[in-house]
Amino acid sequence: MKRIKILIVDDDKTIQKLMQTVLNEKKFEVFSYPRGDGIIKEIKRFFPDIVLLDIKISGISGVEAIQIVKGEKEIRNIPVIAFTSYAMKGDKEKFLNMGFDGYISKPINTRTVEGEIMDVYNNNSKV
What we know:
alpha/beta, Rossmann fold, 5 helices, 5-stranded parallel sheet
């Protein structure tokens, strides 16, 4: 079975380690990158199957980064999930309207995060 490659773009080392632990125990190959700027280079280097992108990140914000990613022909079809502590009513819809393909709020639920990622992956995979 193919391992799904995930790029986690988050400047919080604790979150990076937690996600590495939770997802590496599953069927994922996980890479981390700590900044918003340089995201295009990292995506093109790893060509992940899915990206989890923090909104409040060093460099440029996740909102700015999603616009850049979706503007790049070579990578625009890679699903990008807003990975954020913004969890107020309406935030999910706001991020989906900005071009994100999914939304996962922090703190994560370690029992459900795999399913949340797989839902976005399965809904966006090109067969």
